[in-house]
Amino acid sequence: MLPQYHDARHHVRNGVIKLVEDLAKINEESLQAVEESSVEELEKARKELKKLDDVSEKIDNEIVVIFAKFTPGAKDLREIVSYLKITSALNRVHNNIDSYLKNMQSILIEDNPQMYSFIKDSLRINHCTLKAFEYTIEMLKTFDQDDKIKKLASQIDVELNKTEDIYSILEKDMVQKMSDTDSHAGDYFNLLKYFRKNMKVIDRLETVAQRIIYARMGGKL
Question: Residue 112 — pLDDT band, cuts 50, 70, 90?
């Protein structure tokens, strides 16, 4: 394949890496904002997220140009198609983060100490997500090392399973709380929905990990 193709392919991969790094940074900043109960910092994080609105579309356009100019062969085609799938998953990560931040803003504005106590406990999910971001970035940066990317993918899966355990504990505690009070039962139920939506971020990262493995080693997409 032509050198220009390899340059274009690496440019796309670098664009994907930068997008994941930016999403990870915003996710980390939003975690700190929730820990500090700062509605203002959450709004700042949402504005930073807004700046990424068109990034994945730009990457997709570069991929279309690669198809048009180079008509890559089977192995190269598999990698390029995988990047299209990855940017689609990252779009959902973007939307899930924004939805979570918006929901946290509304909860923090209400200033309910009992609700915030559950939010603090739920931040263990966010810490797992940050680790998953780190592993995803490393997978993309060590793309040519098959054993390493498989190991990193399994580590993402471990973090995903941890979030399910954390959610189960939160759900049990919150159901008990709902049975003790009628006045805030609806609020607690909504909070559980917000936590579940927050978990979709790491779920999408697990999907990205599988796309990276497919890009490198094939299998089922």
Answer: confident
- E strand or H helix at 163, and its extent? helix 146-180
Q: Contact, 205 vs 87, CB < 8 A? A: no
Domains of the chain: 3-217 (1.20.58.220)
Give CA separation, 98 vs 29, 68, 75, in Å. Answer: 13, 34, 35
Spatial distance between the Cα atoms of 197 and 155, rounded to a whole number of angstroms: 21
What is the DSSP code (8-state) at residue 19?
H
Inter-residue contact 13 to 101 (CB < 8 Å):
no
Secondary structure of the chain: what % helix, strand, coil (to 5)?
A: 90, 0, 10
Mean of pLDDT values over 52-65:
94
> Does pTM top 0.85 for this prediction?
yes
Place of tokens 């500090």: 36
Distance between CA atoms of residues 210 and 213, nearest Å: 5
